[in-house]
Amino acid sequence: MRTARVLLIFALITGLVFFGVGCGGGTTTTTPTTQPPTTQPPTIIGVVAPLTGDSATFGKSTQEGAELAAAEWNAKGGINGSQIVLKMADDKSDPTEGAAGITRLIEQEKIVAEIGTVQSKVSLAIAPILQAKKIPMISPTSTNEKVTLVGDFIFRACFIDNFQGVVGAAFAYDNLKLTKAACLFDVGNDYTKGLAENFRDAFIKLGGTIVGFEAHPTGATDFNAQLTTIIAAGPELIYISDYYNDVGLICKQARALGYTGFFLGGDGWDSADLVKIGGDAVEGGFFTNHFSKDDTRPEVQAFVKDYTAKFGAPPDALAALAYDAANLMFDAINRAKSTDGTAIRDALKVADFKAVSGTIKFDANRNPIKAAVIIEIKGGQQTYKATVQP
Ligand code: PHE
Question: What is the bridge-based pairing of β-strands 372-378 and 381-388?
């Protein structure tokens, strides 16, 4: 009787993940109310994500994906007998905040590895700090090519934008049968600018014409000037490589100016808030993404079920990739049998991991080669359209 109760309590405790976000400074502190009954010190992992600000749905999904992975590992006994403790930092979508957050996690929380961050421009600010300290980082979702080129401790769990741009261009040219496109992007953001360039180059290579290539300032909310120029050039499609909050406004303003053609974009569209901001204007829009919850593979359906049970809403691509990045990192630490940064990096390099978003094996630049999906906004919902293999 007594043993059974002790075992039950143990199971309950090990199933917990200690997770917390401090206010103000954007970091963390996680004060476990109950210590795991183990003599092993915990394995402390940092998670950097935009928990507040313009792209806050990205941060929430990322936190939840990492949290689910850690809870599952802890329920099975942790990594080599050590419980995982996640320490959050809020980068607020801002490179300076991200750099401050990761510095705090390294110096005060003594993290041994880091998951995050979401947006390429912020990952580019935190990666050099982790590289200098030889602490491995996996960005779940930063697709800009430059991110992993920072150094050999920097990995990602997603495809990169030259692939994403090619997939978008091929969809526009081959499937939608369009030949005249224009691009609109954020001039101060490596991801949106790089992705627009990748789309442009690929579309021209296929035989299409780019009739407009317009930049808007970071933080803009009025896109009428750029859209007027673009619409006057007569595109059949506008490629919008921004994040969801800008995309919603851009589509609305373009429709108000009388534009009736197609909208297409990249993974930055992925948020339930896109339709809330863009309303009818985003209906019929397409975007390339990493994951669809409608994918019938059993590992996807198991993840969708567990995630929905825990958080009350189905996962988006950011949640899936954070779950994958966290599992990949925990698996590497487990195989390394060490929390030494170099040992974890070496284990990551040879990873061959069946993730929810596809199998992850790294190339020489620590990028996985993975398929993309095309999503259509239909009836206000994201609907799966196609999978495109690399
Ligand atoms: N790919 C984007 C970037 O690099 C981030 C992102 C990924 C946003 C997936 C939404 C969904 O900045």
Answer: antiparallel
